[in-house]
Amino acid sequence: MIIRVRLAAAACALGAALTACGAPAAPPAARPAPSATSAVPSRPPTLAPGPAGLTPVFKNGSRAHGKTVALTFDADMTADQGARAASGERFDNPRLIATLRALKVPATVFMTGRWAEQYPVQARSIGRDPLFEVANHSYSHYAFTGDCYGLPTVSEDRMRADVERAYTAFRRAGVPDAMPYFRFPGGCYDHQALRTLSATGVTAVQWDVVSGDAFATDAGAVAQQVLEGVLPGSVVVMHCTRSAAPATERAVRTIVPELRARGFRFVKVSQLIGS
Ligand SMILES: [Zn+2]
């Protein structure tokens, strides 16, 4: 299991390309009309800063507040993969997004800024659909520590700018309300990275369930790994890219009805953090 986890994480980082979730641009779903109790938009919930003001790290929700689970999809694309995209490699996965919509599964998409630039129509469609929330997975998908599965590294003095550049890319694509949540590329971080990002106000979001979908071709194995790992409050990490995670959409079609049959309810990361 540990080996599988490491392999999956390594595949994510090495592939660096795990791209993302795009969805065919279905007409953006309308946001619900504000009700009397929700007329004032509230700021997304975040965790309080850690000791000495460090960026807080969220891994999973409470185990004692009911059977909720958050599926998260990383929309990876490294800053230097434009040529591969230009030659036809697909870093998006419209079918996955369509399936989540058809099954009415709320989800959090950790998007790189580079992906939003490559697929602005899809980024906007995801970002404007109340079923989803867009969070930050860096601009470049470079690592924020050394020795992170072979990923190139962002220098310390560029870390904040890399995060902010992703938010700028989201806005330019038409994503209105990206969340103040950040997932480190490869999941790699250290004390210095947490200190450096503290001024951005983000909550770092890790996970407690690795799906193993990176470069997997056996959707049944991915589904099994998720179903074996999920607990109340879990955060599941998956990917949204045809080229580097080709089995994910099929795995989701197994995972969703099975977890619902077990009494689980799907929520976004913000709902886990807020509870
Ligand atoms: Zn990633």
From TrEMBL:
Gene3D superfamilies: Glycoside hydrolase/deacetylase
UniProt keywords, alphabetically: Signal
Pfam family membership, one: Polysacc_deac_1
Renumbered residue ranges of the record's region Disordered: 25-52
InterPro entries reported in the protein's UniProt record: Glyco_hydro/deAcase_b/a-brl (IPR011330), NODB_dom (IPR002509), Polysacc_deacetylase_ArnD (IPR050248)
Ranges of biased composition (kind: Low complexity): 32-41
UniProt xrefs under PROSITE patterns: NODB, PROKAR_LIPOPROTEIN
Domain NodB homology intervals: 67-267
Signal peptide coordinates: 1-25
Protein name (Swiss-Prot/TrEMBL): Peptidoglycan/xylan/chitin deacetylase (PgdA/CDA1 family)
Phylogenetic placement of the source organism: Bacteria, Bacillati, Actinomycetota, Actinomycetes, Kitasatosporales
